[in-house]
Amino acid sequence: MSWTHQILSRRRALTTATGLAAGALLPPTAAHGTASPRGPALAAAAAFTNPVIWQDFADIDVIRVGDTFYASASTMHYSPGAPVLRSYDLVNWEIAGHSVPVLDFGAKYDLNGARGYVRGVWASSLAYRPSNRTFYWLGQIDFARTYVYTATAAEGPWNRLTTISTPYYDAGLLVDSDDTLYVAYGNTTISVAQLSPDGRNQVRTQQVFTAPSSVGTLEGSRFYKINGQYYIFLTRPANGQYILKSSSGPFGPYTMRQVLLDLPGPIAGGGVPHQGGLVQTQSGAWYYLAFVDAYPGGRMPALAPVTWTADGWPVVQLVNGAWGTSYPGPTVPPPPRRVTPMTGVDTFDGAALKPRWEWNHNPDNTRWSVNNGLTLRTATVTDDLYWARNTLTHRIQGPTSTATVQLDHTEMHNGDRAGLALLRDSSAWIGVKRDGAGTRVSMVNGLTMDTNWNTTGTGTEVASAAVPGSRVWLRASADIRPGTGRLGAFSYSTDGTTFTRLGPAFSLGNDWRFFMGYRFALFNHATQALGGAVRFTRFELTTP
User: Using CA atoms, how far apart are residues 36 and 201, in angstroms rounded to an integer?
Assistant: First the structure.
């Protein structure tokens, strides 16, 4: 399927509509690959509120291994890719690591003569194979081929196992009860592939279903075996969810049922929850972890309980005809520890970046370091932030949040630009400019891309002020609630206490076609010559 067709099919789906399903409870049976209840007594958590994560994690695949839940998400052109999220209760999540350590899929992912914006890691699959106690990540890149990575621990290290010539678009990986590996994939035409026992090669592939014209586009496969039945869970982007069921084996034949369509979601102004995965708790209860289109922030994970009809079809449990903004918490064992918050302070201690960070494209690893702060040495000579390597990004916490950084600019060179951005296809930043003998803090907006992700504006300075000394505090705030006209604002401080607003409010764009939501971004690039450096000694993400 071509890139153009993907965009058009999603655009059509975003403008169409109708219907919804209901049913009774099927007695739960433990899914293959998950542990039976054991250890501490199960206890219901307090009620939770959706979205369970108000950060941009889309195209979710979710699994349970023992008493731990894991999820994976799309990251497009950000590196490392495919974050692995971890939770003990399906509600509180942390980032454990990344399945794709580097986007080594071509020079465009290095910002080397080309760019990979809105390419890279799309919807992919995460699975666990009990026979060898190994995690598997599988995803296609650029409609060209499929990559498989493995790890014995979710936090890594992850290593590439193989490359398969068939591009398994929007794939779902199933580890069957006999340990065979199967992949469901495709757009509208859905196929199933069988892999070799070592997971390195394709043994067989077969088309198993074609979406009827009355439904239209189906994609985002998730593949399950539950109570001896095979299920392929599919999304109709971006307003529906359907499921296929086979009683005759992984290659079908399959029958289809609608799970939800045009279901009101739990985020005011946001879209229909869709394109996620089903998972069973230790007590046998089932949940659906989906995402909600909620631009300008991105796509936010939302959780809902699922029951089953007597004849084996899943039903999302609704609240007043909608995906609930709140449900009783899952009944799970007490967590062994608290998960690491996705907000708070990072002083860039230690020898590696925390997993909350992702680079805009692959970094030049010779030009950055951590420990006692993050040092960014200029890696690119450009007047275009979209071409600047070593721009480090952090997801924005919704519905509103503020990032504050402390920047030591002592080693900046003439022509260098360093600071804190609100980064997307329409961007703005606050930062330090070093020109001649002068140093000033500037607010710049008007950084823009077209829909082919070519730069159409490199930015205009709209406000500036002199900054004495060698360090400055920079602050960006963003309102990422769904809708148009959401605003960002920038300010600075020379003492870390009193902040001064700089420049006008920045209006965040909310077009879905960039897919990823706005991010905070730390950058340092040269406009004249390499050689300069800055040090970010502290990053803090706070909510009201």
Answer: 32
Structure-token pair, residue 291: 């995402």
Which residues on neighbouring strands pair with residue 195, listed in sequence order? 202
SS3 of residue 249 by DSSP = coil
Question: What backbone phi and psi angles, to 5 degrees, belong to 212?
Answer: -65, 155
H-helix or E-strand spanning residue 499: none
**Range scoring the smallest mean pLDDT among 37-46, 144-153, 155-164, 204-213:** 37-46
Question: Residue 43: which pLDDT band, with cuts at 50, 70 and 90?
Answer: low
Residues 6+ apart with CB under 8 A from 476: 402, 403, 420, 421, 422, 429, 430, 488, 489, 490, 520
pTM exceeding 0.85:
yes
Confidence label for 437 from pLDDT (cuts 50, 70 and 90): confident
Contact status, residue 14 vs residue 272, Cβ threshold 8 Å:
no
How many separate helices (H) and strands (E) can be counted in the chain? Answer: 1, 41
What are 70's strand-pairing partners?
63, 86
What does the mean pLDDT of the chain come to?
93
Q: Residue type for 289, please?
A: L
What SS3 class is residue 392?
strand
Q: How large is the average pLDDT for residues 308-317?
A: 98
CB atoms within 10 A of CB 256: 16
**Residue 102 has what DSSP assignment?**
S
